[in-house]
Amino acid sequence: MAPPRVLVVDDEEDFLETLVNRLRRRGLEAQGALSGPRALELLENGVFDVAVLDVRMPGMDGIELLKEIKDRWPFLEVIMLTGHGSVESGIQGMRLGAFDYVMKPADLENLLEKIQQAHERKSLRGD
Amino acid sequence: MGRKGGKEGSRRLPWLPWVGVGLVALGSLGALLTGSQLWLVVILVLGAACCGVATGQLLAELGKARRERALLDARVVQSHKLAALGELSAGIAHEINNPLAIIGREAELMEHLVGSALAGAQDGPRAELQESLREVSRQVERCKEITRNLLSFARKMEPVFQKVDLNRLVEDMVRLVERETQGKGIQILREYHQGLEPIRTDPPGLRQVVLNLLNNARQATEQGGTITVRTKAVLGGGVEMEVQDTGCGIPREHLARIFDPFFTTKAHGKGTGLGLSICHGIVSRLGGRIGVRSQVGKGSCFTVWLPVEPGSGGNA
Hints:
heterodimer, A: alpha/beta, 5 helices, B: two-stranded antiparallel sheet, 7 helices
């Protein structure tokens, strides 16, 4: 199976950069976006298997972005990053079709495992 | 999820009526040949007793079969009803979505126009007009949420089956909800069956079910109450997951309708009444079953049974 193509969306620049680099070092094709609109731009022009979205972002938040993604790319699997105090959003995210969630601060091994499962799901769909 | 013991069969005596008939025949024959009244009476009484006992057993079996049939009928009616409601609601949701989107767009446009067209006008009325248009947009958003939920209830979600460690999946969802319950003084107890075999199921679908049940339990439970989350291996095959709360419970008259779409006892605007019907739909598509036991004032317990492999049976 080809390595998963992952899009990470988070407004915290340091966090985003670190996470994208760590994912790349683990052999994944990872790209980062600092906002929802930027993420949509990248999605329009590229092919991704899994998106990792921070729930809390200024402007278009993770839930808004998730809705948009599920409307336009229903087979793209989404993993939500939820922080303390955004439980409701986590619940809403699952309801809106997210594959899973990871609690921040994200444990890399845990996140990697979930990305692999989400990727497997997308492959099983034959998409 | 009714589990039945292996009692049947042990008390059934299929040869009993034949013995009865045989004895009656023997008695009649004996009486005919010997002309003895005593023979006749003793053997006929024995034979009749055998026949009587056999008839009793037969009637009991019949009654049991009838009850099982009724239960099965109720299940079939329930799933047919939900399927029909699902189709109806999806149709309505589809029809409403388009005009809703137009109303939303127009409201946004009007808000924008009011801003520029009434630039020189008094602040008060203009702000009021804009606020009123924003309210229209908010309510449109709310309607969209409802149609989205309706569609997800009816959606023929094609499940994608993946290997799942049930305990881990459940624990992940418990942790998400626990952050909220801790602050409210509600305790979550875990009773996970260790060494549960992995199942093949649709992970995000199952997550949604677990999360919905936990969320309901959380809302039904008062401060100081407990929610117990259980996983079990089922003897006849498959696994079970239970969410039990010490909340307000569900009145008997509501139990039959609890999985119906739009049935809600939550305050107006608090629940769409779709959560449990969505759960029911997902669990059915996963080849499982969902059930509920409840006692008013004591709490409720929702049980989800799932097969280890999709399509493999378990207890009836």
